[in-house]
Amino acid sequence: MGITIVGLGPGHGRTLTREAWDVLTNARMVYLRTARHPAVDDLPPGLPRQSFDQVYDTAVSFEAVYTQIVEALLAHGRENDIVYAVPGHPYVGESTVTRLIAAAAPDIPVRVVAGLSFVEPSLTAVGVDALDGLQIFDAIGIAQYHYPPFNPDVPVLLGQVYSRMLASELKLVLTAVYPDEHPVHLIHAAGTAAELVEATPLYTIDRSLHIDHLTSLYIPPLPVASSLMALAETVAHLRSPEGCPWDQEQTPQSMRSSFLEEACEVLDALDAENSVSLLEELGDMFYHLVMQAQMAAEGEEFRLTEAIAGVEAKLKRRHPHVWGDWQVTDSDHVVRNWELLKQQEKVDHVTSILDGVPESLPALARSQKIQAKVRQVGFDWPDIVGVYAKLEEELAELKNAQTPEEQAAELGDLLFVVVNIAKWLDVDAESALRGANLKFSRRFRAAERLASQRGLPIAAMSFEALDALWHEVKEAE
Questions:
Q1: Is 219 helix (H, G, I), strand (E, B) or coil?
Q2: What global pTM score does this model have?
């Protein structure tokens, strides 16, 4: 008993290897994953054959197809020496092969006879060298992603684009990385007399009338370096002996102030709802993030890949309702679960519920974070009425404060209560004050323009005159 797996190559019988031809010539029966392949018509004359096409026609899923084929082959292989023939190379895009080999071990010996895969004739069709970083994926698998798992700086070849519906699903995934107009190539029947290459923009791939089970998709790299790997290489080069003296001199602490500045510029872009500025500022933030990771790697503390692996694992661990069997009712439930899991993860390191609130947060944001933490254990007023009463109490104490130290302390208490009100109203205090600052700045600039248009020296104007301009601007809004 035993199983020989033969690769039929990508096209007609002329692409069969000599070894494959010899095996097929001496076979008493060949089991075909599918008879819908050009090489089948060129098999040795008189060779008995049986295909599994009926399984594809009746099974409810690809998983069911693979299971049925493997079970049937194992049953035959336990009794006789059998030959199982698959398109292309047995180890390129053939799920039944890898499953069959795993299931057969160690009881049933398996021999694999290589064949030319779809990859080589596809590369020939588009004139591409595989060693230029080519990435190869199964289109069926990629269609299940929300964000494609490959590097857009190097070419990609997707096999088994078997239908226009699959092409449509692929398009939606790929446009998360590539522009709609990105030029791609649909390769049909590579390596056969019917070979056809369609050059087309990405957004039109599902309109091709030639798509079938012998279709692949070739995606050239983006025209400019766009991956995290490319940025990491650029930063590493800047830090290298061949790089930039300024970048070489930086330390994690020397980059701190500019990191904070870049973060504030991101917030400015968000406040202005300016996507062009946000695009640029997020890029600057990425530089800082990668720079910090590069310096850590140089100090043998951690690598960029470890930082990404850590947050990727944490996101999945703290979303058990997405990557697990937890049930949630709403977003508040999600937040409670998050905090619970966070506490469980840090149980050996936490001495206070306030541990983990960054001291470098802006004061309003930190105050709101602190109050959200203590609220989780019930340390808050039962309703907002008590908070408003506390606000009046703190305002009265501020009015009665005598020394600068007392006034500063009472003002701090007053602001702390205001932040608590923001929490009760489900308002982000930092964003609210930032919005008020922007609104005030916008109105004051408008008042300045009015004064200038009327020839009024704003520095010499009385408060009453300025207030009148202010209200004029406010009413105009």
A1: strand
A2: 0.77
